[in-house]
Design brief:
This protein is mainly alpha-helical and 303 residues long. It has one domain. 89% of the residues lie in helices and 0% in strands. The protein is built from 11 helices and no strands. Helix 1 packs across helix 7. It is globular and about 60 Å long.
């Protein structure tokens, strides 16, 4: 009897692991698009940090990301169990915040370009940077990246939860925890590699091999361009992810876009769908920015 019970237990465990493996693969595929946005966003979030402080900053953001998921996974399970109707509105609020941050970044970039054309403004900016406390600068960078990560992590958790919602509670917990850990390790491992590309280039450039030197020179030339590309892609990702969340939350709009793109080829349909998310994201972000500035002015007047 004991042997039979043990075999039954092992069979149950094998079935459970098989179910978890299948659902985990589906969840990983579904969240792959968000992971790309997560990667580009977080890689560009750590730009401007001193070379010897890049990895500590990435590690600081990674720890914040783990904490985000430690909060989000049980919270998502609780909301799913007791108030599933709250998931979409909360995600839409997070999407609106991402769009707001995206608009802020665009305006900051335009202001920065204008300042670079003026020698006086450029000198003022350099003086301001020189007076800034490096530790405070790093702290603000980490805080900003962790805030952004929270929204993206929430979407990843929500997508995964949608896939495993009909599964037993144990399966849900294991899959959500597994995806959360793998995503964090994967994203921040790649981010750490990206920000240290230039260091690898310098190391290879000093080697005796002509091939190594050539690769080193290529990496040194490529690294700044990669960071610029990631900065642009990261800002676009804010609108795409934020706008996409809002589109999916507004059922009539989501169905309208599906009807318009339904008979089109996959590439054209994807471009139009993402274009709609991008435009809506920018509009929503602009509205939120106007509201925030209006509230700030009203509070300033009342003080």
């Amino acid at each position: 009897m004991a042997g039979t019970s043990l075999l039954t237990l092992l069979d149950d465990i094998a079935t459970l692991l098989d179910d978890i493996s299948v659902m985990g693969k589906v969840a990983a595929k579904k969240t792959a698009g968000v992971l790309g946005d997560d990667l580009s966003l977080n890689a560009q979030q750590v730009t401007g940090v001193k070379a010897n402080r890049e990895l500590p900053v990435v590690w600081g953001v990674a720890k914040g990301s783990f904490l985000n998921k430690l909060i989000l996974v049980p919270l998502a399970l609780l909301i799913s169990a007791f108030a599933p109707w709250l998931i979409t509105p909360l995600l839409m609020l997070g999407g609106a915040y991402l769009c707001y941050e995206g608009v802020e970044k665009v305006l900051h970039s335009l202001q920065h370009d204008k300042q670079e054309k003026s020698p006086e403004a450029r000198q003022q900016r350099l003086n301001k940077l020189a007076q800034q406390d490096p530790r405070e600068f790093e702290k603000n960078k980490v805080k900003g990246a962790v805030r952004t990560d929270f929204i993206l992590s929430a979407e990843i958790v929500a997508i995964t939860l949608g896939i495993v919602s009909e599964a037993p509670l144990l399966n849900q917990v294991l899959i959500l925890a597994g995806i959360a850990i793998l995503v964090t390790i994967g994203v921040y491992g790649i981010v750490a590699a990206i920000v240290k590309l230039d260091d690898l280039g310098y190391w290879l450039k000093d080697k005796s091999s002509a091939v190594a030197q050539g690769v080193g020179r290529f990496l040194l030339g490529f690294a700044p361009w990669l960071m610029k590309i990631l900065s642009v892609v990261g800002t676009l990702a804010m609108f795409l992810v934020g706008g996409g969340i809002i589109v999916h939350g507004l059922a009539p709009l989501h169905h309208l876009i599906e009807q318009i793109t339904g008979n089109m080829s996959g590439l054209v349909a994807s471009l139009l769908s993402n274009g709609a998310s991008l435009v809506l994201g920018f509009i929503v972000g602009s509205i939120v920015l106007l509201v925030v500035n209006l509230i700030a002015k009203l509070r300033g007047k009342s003080v």
